Amino acid sequence: MIGTRGVPARYGGFETCVEEVGARLADRGHEVVVYCRTSNAAKGAPGADGRPERPQRYRGMNLVHLPALRRRSLETLSHTALSVAHQVAHRSDVALVFNSANAPLLPVLRARGIPVATHVDGLEWQRAKWGPAGRRYYRAGEALAVRWSDALIADAVGIQDYYRDRFDVDTTLLTYGAPVVDGGGCPEKLAEVGLRPRGYHLVVARFEPENHVDLIVEGYVRSGARLPLVVVGSAPYSDAYTARVRAMADDRVRLLGGVWDQELLDQLYAGSFTYLHGHSVGGTNPSLLRAIGATASVDAFDVRFNREVLGGASRYFATPADVAALVESAEADPRATADRARACRARASLYDWDEVATGYEQLCRDLAAGLPTGSRATLDRMGALTPRPTSARHDLFSTEILGGTASVRADDLAPEVLTHEVLDNGIPEELPGVPVAGRVAADESR
Fold first, then answer.
1. Residue 41: exposure state from Cβ atoms within 10 A (0-12, 13-18, ≥19)
2. Strand pairing report for 116-119 and 315-317
3. What is the spatial distance between Cα 365 and Cα 342, in angstroms, rounded to a whole number?
4. SS3 177
5. Are 140 and 416 in contact, with CB atoms under 8 Å apart?
6. Positive/negative CA dihedral, 22, 25, 27, 32
7. Number of helical (H) and strand (E) elements in the chain, helices listed first
8. How does DSSP classify residue 168?
9. 315 - beta bridge partners?
10. What is the pLDDT of residues 371-416, one digit of tens each?
11. Where do runs of H (alpha helix) occur along 333-437?
């Protein structure tokens, strides 16, 4: 499992997926290797020498700790490059690569004969934190993931539809699970942070514009709500956004920062009066699933991904005024709020980690057996691709890969190189020597 911060899961959806799926596959007798960033281990408990421990095993999984460049634009790709180099020397039967931003490195794995399934995540290029070059890079990464993956994994029907509409390829739908937390919030645990069950509204989110923490805080401050708003979350590289949220808050808003104690976080979900979910671009969101699994009454930002999870069990917002109205009406009618919480809990039964792990297990078996799946099966059906001339920089890139070299020069991965020959529909021209089976013709109507 390559491309995430690793385990234990302390950050986001990918890490949660790796931990929950990886542990279950290990329990079923599979050897699971997870590549972890050393910065993730730094958040754990210190060892005897006072430095953070880097365990070699966790919940039955084998862990490989490798560094990453501490720069937003390079952190993911630099760690994945080292992980791929390690994997080339220590070959697995199948590689599960998370994040289409890592797609430029997929040919290295395929040249080693390792089947690759890429979890494409949500629509990362829509995130405001990326400038024009970053957005072009992520769009190109999607296209390269389509071309160079043996299978594509989507965590939401909306993501499946996006890849079908844009690239005309199939994906394997593997969502996340909804952990079940009963009890309505442990009073003793909540008292550690000065809260009581059903005594607060809750937000849990990374501080990024697409998660709309600022919109929620602004709407709450406009309201006449009596219960406090508790905000859990932070993010690297987000000082300006964090300052903006703090400036909006009044004395009813409590900013807890990141909560790494999973038991406390679970009880915060379970004890909330309402949970306000502002995520908008990431597909199926683990925070939302934790909320419904904890019987929280959810009000969510109005996008397709959230409606896919919640259906009619939730209410939806799009503006600060909507948020103000929702928190006021929730407090005015506690019985209706409790009814919505039970309806949300019923939706949690649709998201089971055991079933998700079974899906990953079957996909890995198919890939290891050489069975065509996902994007590769679709491309195979399209027929052979006619080679086309490419730039000298592309020639160098593909030659290094086919030669078995695990290192790829950073300038060869620059956004302008990756997007130099992207067709109108986002699929790049063929790189010489890199085996592919077909491409989709550009369609001006899209």
1. buried
2. unpaired
3. 38
4. coil
5. no
6. negative
7. 18, 13
8. -
9. 299
10. 877 555 555 544 433 222 333 322 222 222 222 223 333 333 333 3
11. 334-348, 353-368, 374-382, 392-402, 415-418
